[in-house]
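Sat 14:20. Reprocessing the chain from the morning session after the first attempt stalled halfway. Input below, unchanged.
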Amino acid sequence: MIVKPGDFADPQILDLLRQHLQGMQETSPPGHSFALDLSGLQRPDVTFLSVWEDDTLLAIGAIKQLAPDHGELKSMRTRTDSLRRGAATAMLTALLDLA
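Finished this time. Tokens:
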């Protein structure tokens, strides 16, 4: 398993991001989904990472810098067929290391 910057041109990443945004809209109360869309994830104050096993994307996640000493975890999602394999732990560890 490897954690690396996410490539927004990769179809696997775009598909998982689409699933994430759709899931957040479906499960959040109206007006209370604060998931970042593609343009929000591409801002300079956001670091977007991906977790891979060989050529298969397992998870995505991001951290947004709000101040030099303050950040917010954003947009974490693991593929449904990759649950319970350690991808979320790898992502969270990488994001916390950045923080």
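The chain has a mean pLDDT of 88.
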